[in-house]
Write a structure and sequence with these properties.
The complex is a heterodimer of chains A (424) and B (93). With 424 residues, chain A is an alpha/beta fold. Helix content of chain A is 31%, strand content 21%. In chain A, α8 packs parallel to α11 and α12 crosses α14. Helices cover 35% and strands 26% of the residues of chain B. Chain B has three helices and four strands, in the order αβαββαβ. In chain B, a hairpin with a 4-residue loop joins β2 and β3. In chain B, α2 packs across α3. Classes of the chains: A alpha/beta (424), B alpha+beta (93). At the A-B interface, α3, α9 and α10 of A face α1, β1, β2, β3 and α3 of B.
């Protein structure tokens, strides 16, 4: 039994679980299979999480990805009939709360493949961290996207604010001197702490990603894609995984008029908790660049797997998709495959808290490369919309030889091509 | 939540407001968000006979977070202006 389920059952008598249903041909689990498990979920003895999921299921938003495949009324009716369980037809899974008895009954069901604990919101942790010396003048990731060609055209991100919601940032690092316009820390209700002090990192992830977006050259060596862009950097993750902290950071950065958001955190699997918020970001003129996850093929994280997000996977210097880079196909008309594209995410050298540099692998490292590119494009065309910049990035992509679309979708973006597309 | 109900411990939840149909499906503006969130909190307070312990409105994101007794959060969930909700505290991975 999953440790998480065991602990939840011991602590509260109920556990929030994901039920993976057996597939019945190409159409996914049958309706009978779904109906057969419905009664096993509790509807009265609810945990806080489950009660909220239940309420959310009562009112599906009109843009739920899975709703594109089925008649809206039917989906709504199904949701209304399911007070304590939520079914995701694209994934063939159900989320709900069970007692120990219900769990045992689910496990006996023919139609059930497995039952696992529900996922938390968390940082997309790097797959590898290693000390490194910055020996090249320009990192391989920046070269791979031909970013220096844009620098030569005078594009460096000046005047563009990039939202960076992460573990924080070490503002004293030489590569980040002058890069941070605003720094904030949020409490559990998403309120900004009055005196956050100098920008600091609660980990080392945020400093690394921040410098990949907007690191300034040090001794002629560059790690940042947009070396004159400014960051609105906030501590929103770690030291407690609290949704309102992320929301507080989003609200703050939107208020500061960020144009691009770089975020490397999420829920494992498809959960629409951030869907409405991602839609709000776009409507506020913010391009949401999200890491797709580090759990390999057949997996993805939310919000990186929403149609509304620019989702990013990782490639190596040899232009192959990293084994850890998540990718997943959804049964939806628009944006069926995630990630949307791949960017440099293996052996990425960037800033380390306290000074110096280190190499990291992860889709978290690929994401700031694309956020930095978007900053350069917004500088080039300040009146461009989110859709226009996103489209220019998409159309600039090329899939290297041998890269499967299922893994890398459009492939690797290219700076000069994206600029040309944007100006076309 | 029922477990929390027994001893009236407050629970925290994040609420996203419905899109503004008058504004062609866009999210509510900052002012609308503030006004609507406060209106909902007041409406629910009257319904359940008690205030929320704490709340914070995210004006730019069309959303708000509430810390309140379970009955208050339940009543808030039922309001038609609420599009979705999620538990604020997420378990550790």
């Amino acid at each position: 039994m999953s440790t998480k389920i065991t602990e939840d059952l011991r602590a509260s008598g109920v556990a929030q679980v994901i039920v993976v249903l057996k597939q019945s041909g190409a159409g996914g689990p049958s309706e009978r299979a779904i109906e057969s498990i419905r009664s096993q979920f509790v509807s009265t003895d609810l945990t806080q999480d489950a009660a909220l999921v239940m309420a959310r299921a009562k009112r599906p938003t009109r843009k739920l990805a899975f709703a594109e495949d089925i008649e809206e009324d039917r989906a709504e009716a199904a949701a209304l009939q399911a007070p304590a369980v939520r079914y995701y037809p694209n994934l063939g899974i159900a989320l709900g709360t069970v007692t120990r008895t219900g769990l045992a009954a689910l496990r006996r069901k023919e139609s059930v493949d497995k039952v696992v604990g529900a996922p938390p919101l968390s940082l997309i942790r790097p797959q590898r961290v290693a000390s490194a010396r910055l020996t090249r003048q320009i990192t391989w990731g920046i070269e791979a996207m031909d970013i220096p060609d844009l620098w030569r055209e005078g594009l460096n991100g000046k005047g563009v604010l990039v939202g960076h919601l992460d573990t924080g940032v070490d503002g004293s690092h030489p590569a980040l001197k002058g890069a941070i316009r605003k720094f904030a820390v949020f409490d559990d209700l998403g309120r900004q702490e009055a005196r956050p002090g100098r920008p600091y990192d609660t980990d080392d992830h945020g400093t690394h990603t921040a410098a990949t977006i907007a690191g300034r050259p040090v001794n002629g060596r560059a790690v940042g894609v947009a070396p004159a862009a400014k960051l609105a950097s906030a501590v929103v993750i770690e030291s407690g995984n609290v949704v309102a902290r992320v929301l507080g950071g989003l609200d703050w950065a939107v208020g500061l008029r960020m144009r691009v958001l770089s975020m490397s955190l999420g829920f494992r699997g498809y959960w629409d908790d951030f869907l409405g918020l991602t839609q709000v970001l776009r409507s506020r003129g913010v391009l949401p660049a999200f890491a797709v996850g580090n759990e390999g093929p057949g997996t993805s994280r939310s919000p990186g797997n929403y149609s509304e997000a620019l989702s990013i996977g990782a490639i190596s210097e040899r232009r192959s998709v990293a084994g850890f880079s998540s990718s997943q196909r959804f049964r939806r008309r628009r944006d069926a495959i995630v990630p949307d594209l791949v960017a440099p995410g293996v052996g990425i050298i960037s800033a380390m808290p306290g000074g110096g540099y280190q190499a990291m692998d992860g889709t978290s490292m690929a994401t700031p490369h694309v956020a930095g590119l978007a900053a350069l494009l917004f500088q080039a065309e300040p009146s461009a919309t989110v859709d226009e910049v996103e489209r220019a990035i998409f159309e600039s992509c090329r899939r290297p030889a041998g890269m499967l679309p299922e893994r890398g979708r459009r492939g690797l973006p290219n700076g000069p091509r994206a600029l040309a597309r944007l100006r076309r | 939540m029922d477990k929390a109900s027994a001893d009236e411990r407050p629970v925290q939840a994040v609420f996203v407001l419905r899109q503004n149909e008058a504004a062609q499906g866009g999210p509510p503006t900052g002012e609308e968000t503030d006004e609507l969130a406060r209106e909902l909190l007041a409406r629910v307070a009257e319904q359940v006979g008690g205030q929320a312990d704490d709340f914070n409105i995210f004006r730019n994101m069309g959303s708000f977070v509430v810390s309140a007794k379970p009955a208050f959060v339940r009543a808030l969930l039922e309001q038609p202006e609420v599009s979705s909700a999620v538990a604020n505290q997420q378990p550790a991975e």
